[in-house]
Amino acid sequence: MDFMVFQYPMITVQACLDGILLGILFALIAYGMALQWGVMNIINIAQGDLVILGGYIAYFMYLYGIHPAWGVIVSPIIMYFVGVGIYKLVINKVVDRDLFISILATFGISILFMQLMNFAFGADVVLANSGYGTTFLFDSAVVLPNSKIFSAFVSIVFAICLVIYMKKSKLGRAIRATAQNARAAKILGVDTEKVYAATFGLNAALCGVAGALISITFTIHPYMGLPYTIRSFMIVIVAGLGNLPGVAMSGMGLGVFEEFADYILGTEFRIGSVFLLLVLILVYRRFKLSRKREYLK
Amino acid sequence: MKINKLILSFISAVAILLSTSVVSFAKVVGDKIVLGAAISLTGKYSSNGVHTQNGYNMAVDRINSMGGVKVGGKTYKFEIIYYDDESNPKRAAQLAERLISQDGVEFMLGPYSSGLTKAIAPVTEKYGVPMVEANGASRSLFTKGYKYLFAVLAPANLYLDVAIRTAVELNGGKGVRIAQAFEQDAFSQDVRLGILDAAKETGSEIIIDDKLPKELNDMAATLVKVKQMKPDVLVVSGHTKGALTAIRQIAEMKVDVPMLAMTHCDAAKLSKQHGKNSQYALCASQWHKTLTYKDNFFKDGMTYAADFQKEFGYDPPYQSAESSAALLVFKDAFERANSFDQKKVRDALAATNMQTFYGNIKFAPGGQNVDKPMVLFQVMCDGAGKCENKVVAPLKWASAKLIHPIPKWSER
After folding, report:
1. Alpha-carbon distance values, A140 to A6, A137, A263 (Å)
2. Does domain B158-285+374-411 have CATH number 3.40.50.2300?
3. Which of A213, A173, A184 is nearest to A51 (CA)?
4. What value of ipTM does the predicted structure carry?
5. Chain B positions in Cβ-Cβ contact with residue A18 (cut-off 8 Å)
6. Chain B residues near any Cβ of chain A (below 8 Å)
7. Fewer Cβ within 10 Å of end Cβ, chain B: N or C?
8. Is CATH 1.10.3470 the right assignment for the domain spanning A4-296?
9. Structurally, what CATH architecture does the domain formed by B18-154+291-362 represent?
10. Tens digits of per-residue pLDDT, B354-405?
11. Cβ separation B221–A262 shorter than 8 A
C-alpha cells in the first residue's frame, strides 16, 4: 500500500483528471453495450474485441499516411456494417433465446475475432501516433496528454449525437419502442428485425469510435479486448439500462477508481481491482434483490 | 449393420498398425539428421515465433549447402520437423511428447519464450533428449538441474545489469536511485531480480518498484511517481507492450529522467513506431549486427544481417540470430561427439566452447551461456528524424558514445 497519491495534492488532481478522461471513453463503450442489452437482452462478450477491431481500422489508416483522428469517422462506418453482418449471421438466431445462449454465442464470436485479428494483423502490439502534444496545468504540476483530452471530447460529442438521434429520429424512436416492449412495437408496425440489426450495428459503430480513440491514446493488440468488455459490463450493471447520465457517471467513477487503485495498491492490481469491484457489486445487487423478494413474500 | 461395424473395426485396426509402424522412424534417416521444434506460428507470440523459425531455417540451409554435418566419416544434412504450439504452454508440452514418442525425434530445438521453454524442458529431460534453445532466458530454467537443456543466450537477470553498472560508473562509482516497472511474467521478473542484485552490489537504492499487469496499456501512475521522485535511472521491462507504452507516455507526459533502460526495443520496432520520441532510450539486446564475432558459416554479424535481409526481407532481430546460432552449436557438438548417441551428444554439448557470429558460446553446468555478455544500444536519431540503434556498452563493442544524461524535453 502506498498513499503517495494523497500526500501530494497535485498527484491527487492528476489521478482524478486522468481517471475522468479515461472514464468518459469507457462510458462510450458501455453506452453501446447498454443500448443493445436493453433492446435485445444480449450481453455482448465480444464488445472489447469490436473495440480492438475499430482500433485496427484507425491504425491502418495511420499506416497509409492518413491522420488516425479520421479513424473516428471511418471506423464507425465500417464497424456499423461489421455489426449488422454479425447480427445477420449469428445474433438473430439467439436474440429471443435466454441470456445464457447469447453469452455463449458472443463468447464464441469474441474468440473468433481474437484469432482472426491475430491471423490478419499479427501479434505485434501497435499504436497510432496523433502528434497532439501535451497540456500542462498548475505550473506543469499536472500533465494531460492532448490525445486523452481529444478522446474524451470526441466521446462526449458522439454520446450527445446518439442521444439526440435516439430522441428525434424515426429509427431512434423505433429502437426505444422495441426496448420497452418488442411485441407491442411489432404489432404497431415496427420492423423489429431491422431495429435489432440497426442496434447491433450502432453498438459496433460506437465500439469503432472508441477503438480509434484507444489506438491514439493507448495500444492495440488482438488479445486486449476482454478488459474493455469487463469494464463496460460493470458500468452498465452499476448504471442500469437506458440511463445515459448514469452510464457517464459510473464510467468516470470507474476511471477514477482505477487510477486510485493503481496508485494505492500498485499497477499490478489495476485491472484486478476492477474485477474485484465487479464481484462486490454483483454480490451487493444479489443481496439487495434477495431482500426485496423476502419483503414481497 | 454388424458387418459394417466389423469392417470399420478391421480398418481401424489396420490403420493403427500402420501408424505405429510408420511412426518409429528415428532421428537419423538416411543422410538426414531430423530435429524437432514446437514453435509459436499462431497466437500471441507468433511474430517472434516466425523470427525464430526464420533463424533456424537460415542456418539449416547454410550448414547443408556448406557440406552438412560430418559424423563417422559420413555427411549428414539437417532437417527440422516443425509444429505450431499456438503460443500455448500446454500445447507445446504435448507437441514435445509427440515429436519424441511419435515422430521419433531424438534432438530438439527450443520454442520461443521462456514460458514455453519451461513447459517443454521437463519433457525433453524425461526422455533424455538434448535440446538447444535460443529463446528462453528465464533464470529459473537454469536452476532446476536440467542435464539436457542448453541455451545459447545470456540469462534474463543479466539483461539490464549493464545499464545499472554504467549508470553507477557515470555517477563516479556512487550508487544511483532507481525507479523500475516490470511486468509480472517469468522473464521480466528475472530481469527485475538482476536489477536488485546489481543495485545491492553497487549500493544503489530502488525508490519505485512497480509491477505491471499483463493487460497493461497505461502506466501514467508510475510515470507521475517518477516525475515526483526524480530517480537517476528508469528501468522498464514488459515485452513489446511495455516498451511501446512507456515511450508513448514518457513523451506525452514529458517525463525527464537521466537514463531510461528497457528490454524488447527492437521487437517493438521502437524507432519505427515512435520515431524521435524513442530517442536516447537504452535497450538490452542479446546481439547486434555490428558486433565483431566471427564464424565460418555466416562470417560476421553484418554479413548475416545482409543475407537474412536478402532471404526474408527484413533486418534480423536478435531472436533470429540466436536461433541460427543454436544450429551451429548442434553441428559442432555432433561432429565432436562423432556419434548420434544422445548421451554422447549431450556431453559434447556440455563441453561446447566456440565462437559464432552471434557470440561466444560456453555452457555453465545449469545450461546457460556464460561466455556472451549482453549489449546495450541507444536509439539515436539524426536531424531528419531517422533513428538507428547504436551499440554503446560494453565499451569493447561500442559504435557510438553513450549520450548521458538524456536532454530534458524542454531542451529538445
Report:
1. 18, 5, 20
2. yes
3. A213
4. 0.79
5. 220-221
6. 42-47, 87, 181, 184, 210-213, 215-222, 224-225, 227-228, 239-241, 244-245, 248-249, 252-254, 268-269, 273-275, 277
7. N
8. yes
9. 3-Layer(aba) Sandwich (3.40)
10. 999 999 999 999 999 988 888 888 988 887 778 888 888 887 788 888 888 8
11. yes
